[in-house]
Write a structure and sequence with these properties.
The chain is α/β, with parallel strands linked by helices. Helix content is about 40%, strand content about 15%. The longest helix has 16 residues. It comes from Neobacillus notoginsengisoli.
Length: about 280
Amino acid sequence: MTTIEKNSPETRGRMIAVCSAKGGIGRTILSVNLAVSLAKRNNSVAILDGDFQFGDVSLAMDLQHTFTIKEAMEGITSLDEDRLEEYMSSHNSGVRVLPAPDRPEFADLLTKEAVSKMVNLLLLKNDFVVCDTGAGLNEHTLNLIEKADEILVVATLEMAAMKNTKLLLETLGILGLRDKVRVVLNRANMESVIKAEDGAKILGEEAPVFIPNDFQICSRSLNMGTPFVISHSKSEISKSVFKMAEMIGSNVSSTKAIRKKGKSFSLFPWKRRKGGVSK
């Protein structure tokens, strides 16, 4: 963004909060790959690792950071968008990362007001700010999703994930945030007693985003610290994330608009047939 643009309310960046009701369902890896995919569309993108106790964004991007949000917090009184840049780490994709603290006890040092200020500064400097939140709904996660322009709720087809995600969606509805939510069903073609289409019905979601299951690519991506949209850009899982980034980046069809039209939006990169899945 230019200096003129970044001070204009109309061109303020968009914040995407990625959250989930439970851990271990691919929230961080989707956050990282979404951010890189948005950057590939010539957007300036920052990631805030909002899992302040056990954040893994730096690990997922193989970043050896010098500073974290803890150090930025210590200089909060004089912090502006340029000073905040000094605490961030750069990825070769162009994505900038504000890492979570190095130790879980440091999360208690972060105040809601300070985190809000840092988010606002990031939005002044970037087209998109992707925030990988912690699992569940703690005080910091609530603060972040309330500030978000769009909330991606990640779930899988496991029974516990379905149950907890349904409760999360109901809570977001009570808080008046449901219109900002887009459900992402990760590992949507995994072996499960619940099929992807049935999972969408259980969650009361007409238009979820479906991301295919690819354990080998995701595992290698995390272990090597290389986003799969870079290392395996032609894979089906990468194509799904690219499409999700295109949908978010172009802001073509919001969840609200889809619901009004009564149409289901699918990012299935595969065809379903009786008895299995064919690509």
